[in-house]
Design a protein that fits this description.
- There is one protein chain.
- The chain is mainly β.
- Helix content is 14%, strand content 51%.
- The radius of gyration is 14 Å and the shape is elongated.
C-alpha cells in the first residue's frame, strides 16, 4: 500500500509540474462498475519525436496490472485504446504514463470504483 501511494504521489506530482500534459486518459465506460466489468480507456498522446513507450497501469489494495507498448516517436498513433476487466472490488487508480527518449516521464491519473455486487 505504501509503495502504491508513493508511486501515485510521484506520478501526480510529475503531471502537476508538467502543466499541460501530452498524455490524456479518459474512461469511455464511466467510473463506477461491478466486478467483472470491462472498462474501455482512450489514451490520447501528443505526437513527439521523443515518445518511446506508453503504459496503462491500474492498482487497488488487492490487485494491480499493466499494459505497455513501445512507441516510434512521431510515427506512433495519436490515440491508443485499452480494455481492462477489474476482477476484485475496490477503488482503482488508473495511470497512463508516457516515457520519452530524454527519460522524461509524463502521467495522467483517473480513479475507478468497482463494487462487489457480483462477487
Amino acid at each position: 500500500m505504501v509503495r502504491l501511494a508513493l508511486i501515485l504521489a510521484f506520478l501526480l506530482l510529475a503531471a502537476i509540474v508538467d502543466g499541460a500534459s501530452p498524455v490524456h486518459l479518459t474512461s469511455r465506460s464511466g467510473y463506477i462498475g461491478s466486478v467483472g466489468s470491462r472498462f474501455r480507456f482512450r489514451i490520447a498522446i501528443e505526437q513527439d519525436a521523443k515518445n518511446r513507450a506508453f503504459c496503462l497501469q491500474w492498482a487497488s489494495e488487492q490487485s494491480e496490472g499493466q499494459s505497455c507498448d513501445s512507441l516510434d516517436g512521431e510515427r506512433a498513433p495519436a490515440t491508443i485504446w485499452r480494455e481492462v476487466t477489474f476482477r476484485t472490488s475496490g477503488e482503482y487508480h488508473v495511470v497512463a504514463s508516457l516515457r520519452r527518449s530524454d527519460q522524461d516521464h509524463v502521467s495522467n491519473v483517473e480513479t475507478i470504483r468497482i463494487t462487489g455486487i457480483f462477487e
